[in-house]
Write a structure and sequence with these properties.
This protein has five helices and 14 strands. The protein is α/β, with parallel strands linked by helices. The radius of gyration is 18 Å and the shape is globular.
């Protein structure tokens, strides 16, 4: 399987030294990439700025900074892949403009105008074809219900929902608590597990979905 994985946060710069971002550390996405490599898949990883080392054996690694960079990198690779797993915590907004020079304290505006970033999954949806597209939903409440809405809105095959406030789940820890939400089955909740084990389970789930999609397109 040719697996395209996005991971980590994006940074949206206000000036050369200041940015908006989020708490994503890239651990879940890097675990998915590693699980793919371990299973013998070809894996391309598109990563926002993170502190952790990439897994060995990747077919490609693109390091990106902003949401728009991430979209551009994924647009270049999407035709290549059989499956896209978007674990990245893409910043939904960016400052309307980025100053070329550091904004001086006295010149800092009291309010910063934000504009919406492109939704990467929605932008790539027309190029999905028989590819498997998987999204993540990091929520602080009603994770499964919100994941079901995302599944429909973004036309995905699977959404991995997690409540980032649950103990042992979410940002910066090595474990996660996930629920898989798909169009044709009831939500499936898993007990707390390492991101590594969840990633291995997810890669096999993606493989099954791909097989099913390939078979149905041949039928
Ligand atoms: O809508 P929300 O941001 O919660 O959806 C999360 C999913 O959508 C994740 O898979 C994330 O990578 C993806 N996403 C995206 N483009 C954005 C924001 C999120 O593809 N601008």
């Amino acid at each position: 399987m040719k697996l395209l994985v996005s991971a980590g946060p994006t940074r949206e710069f206000l000036d050369p030294v200041r940015f908006l971002s989020n708490r994503s550390t890239g651990r879940m996405g890097y675990a998915v990439a590693e699980a793919g490599v371990a299973a013998g898949d070809e894996v391309a990883l598109v990563s926002g700025p993170v502190e952790i080392a990439p897994p060995a054996g990747l077919a490609a690694l693109d390091r990106v900074v902003s949401a728009r960079d991430m979209l551009a990198a994924l647009e270049k690779r999407v035709e290549w892949c059989d499956a896209l797993v978007m674990t990245a915590a893409v910043a939904d907004f960016r400052p309307e403009s980025a100053a070329a020079d550091k904004i001086r304290k006295g010149e800092m505006p009291e309010t910063i105008r934000l504009v919406r970033n492109p939704d990467i999954l929605k932008t790539l949806a027309p190029r999905k074809g028989r590819r498997v597209f998987v999204g993540f939903a990091a929520e602080t409440r009603d994770a499964a219900a919100s994941a079901a809405r995302k599944l429909a809105a973004k036309g995905l095959d699977l959404v991995v929902a997690n409540d980032v406030t649950a103990p042992g789940a979410g940002f910066g820890v090595d474990t996660n608590v996930v629920t898989l939400v798909s169009p044709d089955a009831p939500p499936e909740s898993f007990p707390i597990a390492t991101k590594r084990d969840i990633a291995a389970m997810l890669v096999e789930r993606v493989r099954k979905l791909l097989l099913r999609q390939t078979e149905s397109s041949l039928a």
